[in-house]
Amino acid sequence: MARHRVLLVEDEEDIQELVRYNLGRDGYAVEAVTSGEAALASARQAPPDLILLDIMLPGIDGLEVCRLLKANPKTNPVPILMLTARGEEVDIVTGLEVGADDYLPKPFSPKVLTARVRAVLRRATAAVADAQTTIRLHDLVIDPGRHEVTVGGAAVDLTFTEFRILHLLARRPGWVFTRAQVIEEVRGEEYPVTDRSVDVHMVALRRKLGENGKYVETVRGVGYRFRD
Ligand code: CA
Fold it and tell me: Separation of 10 CA from ligand 1 center, angstroms?
């Protein structure tokens, strides 16, 4: 199998070294650049398999780089893992909304780094369940055609909105969806969905799923995900 090519965009030397060394040792071909401008040039010339993108960069920042990469059909499919610092929760939310696939808070251990890189690459290649596919996760069966959810064979009585939220999250296990993305999914129902009411739906959803409710996770300051 060809080696995965990883483009690292990071201006901090120690982190650049850590990533280069550990991913290199695991067999990835790592190209490192220190600015957003250089990242765009490289990715447009030869799209890599994955981009590790620091947010705080000299010149154009990581969020703008992410936006530009996702707006270009040639670089749009490349998964982006943001490297974030403490206190950048707002940037994480923005990054996910402009198309980043996941984020990795600094500082991170080599073990966490390689696990996350592997997970993002795996998710990028695994087909995302389409809107009509029945999803089976843990003891849960989600049947979008019949709008039906069962746990261990027993039907769970969900509202329309709860079903939509669960279906959105479960279609991409492990992915973090921001509040705005969840609202976007359920918008157009009989009443407007506010930030606050999303939380209420989540609480109800978890309760109705019983033991399986623990898989519907709140990611503090960012959003929600269905645990992988
Ligand atoms: Ca930086």
Answer: 6
